[in-house]
Amino acid sequence: MTDNFLSIVFALASALTIAWGTAVRHRIAEAGPSEGSAILTAIRQPLWWAGLGTSLLAYGLQILALGFGPLLIVQPILVMSLMFTLPISALYDGRRMPLNEILWAAVLCVAVAIVVLLGRPVGGVDAPNLRHWAPALIIGAVVLGTAYHFSGRLIRREKALVLGLVTGALFGFVAVFSKAVADALRSEGVWALLTTWEFYALVLSALVGTAVQQIAFDAGALRNSLPAMKIGEPIVAFILGYAVLGESFQVSGGDYGWLGGALVVMIVSTVTLSRKGLN
């Protein structure tokens, strides 16, 4: 119980830092020129590096959270980063959050609480071998590579949506790699990271995900890309958590209905908040 509590605390801290980094980097993308490289324009600004540093801090907090609890506890809580993004973005834009956004935020809180408290997630395999990882890595590389290539043929709104999905999926892989790294760090120490391929996969996927995220921000309004990011990440992480790590929820009978309903409400409220609050 203590480990799960610490996992929740670190996950909430990670969600807060993710929110600030997201808001800062999108604001820079909106202020940038319409032509030229979005990434090259962004990295020339010190504030972008501050936002990136905050995002890296969020990854560290996420790894700490995963070191104390299963992915199926941490990932729903990270969805709540959107709730922190909304007031931060409103502050930058000089506006107030309307009542309907506050109400949807409350709905999201309840849905996440049901998933975590009713679902009572339990951990699975600490170090799945590469044979278990291979199908997920191959399918992920093919699907995400194809989607990224296809996005180049789309107009701004659809391009931002597709790139948002790619970003969310990449960070879903980041979440699962983070869990593997956290387990190795806790059981074998820092030096063990140098011998685990998951650590290098984590670094690579996080860098690629951050780059694609910046391109998605530049492709269109945040309301087009952020919902896809926020939903794509937990869906991919949940699938990988079940299929690769062997994690599961402790539910039976009618509780499956409540858990499934909470997951649907979590998705709907996240999409609604993204589109309402970040126009």
TrEMBL record:
<feature type="transmembrane region" description="Helical">
    <location>
        <begin position="224"/>
        <end position="244"/>
    </location>
</feature>
<keyword id="KW-0472">Membrane</keyword>
<feature type="transmembrane region" description="Helical">
    <location>
        <begin position="47"/>
        <end position="66"/>
    </location>
</feature>
<feature type="transmembrane region" description="Helical">
    <location>
        <begin position="6"/>
        <end position="26"/>
    </location>
</feature>
<feature type="transmembrane region" description="Helical">
    <location>
        <begin position="190"/>
        <end position="212"/>
    </location>
</feature>
<keyword id="KW-0812">Transmembrane</keyword>
<feature type="transmembrane region" description="Helical">
    <location>
        <begin position="160"/>
        <end position="178"/>
    </location>
</feature>
<protein>
    <submittedName>
        <fullName>DMT family transporter</fullName>
    </submittedName>
</protein>
<feature type="transmembrane region" description="Helical">
    <location>
        <begin position="130"/>
        <end position="148"/>
    </location>
</feature>
<keyword id="KW-1133">Transmembrane helix</keyword>
<feature type="transmembrane region" description="Helical">
    <location>
        <begin position="72"/>
        <end position="92"/>
    </location>
</feature>
<feature type="transmembrane region" description="Helical">
    <location>
        <begin position="256"/>
        <end position="274"/>
    </location>
</feature>
<feature type="transmembrane region" description="Helical">
    <location>
        <begin position="99"/>
        <end position="118"/>
    </location>
</feature>
